[in-house]
Amino acid sequence: MAQFDEVRHNVADRTSDLISTAMGFIGVPYRRGGNSAEAGFDCSGFVRAAFQQAQGLVLPRRANEQAAATEVIDRKDLQPGDLVFFNTMRRAFSHVGIYLGEGKFIHAPRSGAKVRVEDMQASYWQRRFNGARRVADGDADSLTAQALVQASGSGY
């Protein structure tokens, strides 16, 4: 039982680090193709930077690739740190944010805006919700390996 408690605390600590890191980016301006707090973020660059800084995980660069590389979960099973996806550009999985709990998520919304927290219950987001994903512990090795292959310029 002590081992289970240790695993549970590890997961909670990593999630807390992720949320704290993401919240630390509030106010960073949106920039298409941006992937740093200094230059600005687009939605997937924001998510990627938060996971890389907090957990050492390198997620794919684009929102649809992040959706494909992570575990599908039901909306009712959302937990803080999960990814939430939306259709904001007339295509599925074109926008991503990090779920915070209590129906809220943090994201880099659009040109002219800054990283902020929003309510998923707002009609705009409800109408565009595409699904939720979880970055599972087992994803860490494959995501890092995938990123290394992409960085080297070779494909699978």
UniProtKB/TrEMBL annotation:
Gene3D superfamilies: endopeptidase domain like (from Nostoc punctiforme)
Origin superkingdom: Bacteria
UniProt keyword annotations, A-Z: Hydrolase, Protease, Thiol protease
GO molecular function, one term: cysteine-type peptidase activity
Keyword Protease annotated: yes
Species annotation: Oryzisolibacter propanilivorax
Pfam families: NLPC_P60
InterPro entries from the UniProt entry: NLP_P60_dom, Papain-like_cys_pep_sf, Peptidase_C40
Family: Belongs to the peptidase C40 family.
Protein name: Cell wall-associated hydrolase, NlpC family
Annotated NlpC/P60 domain residues: 12-136
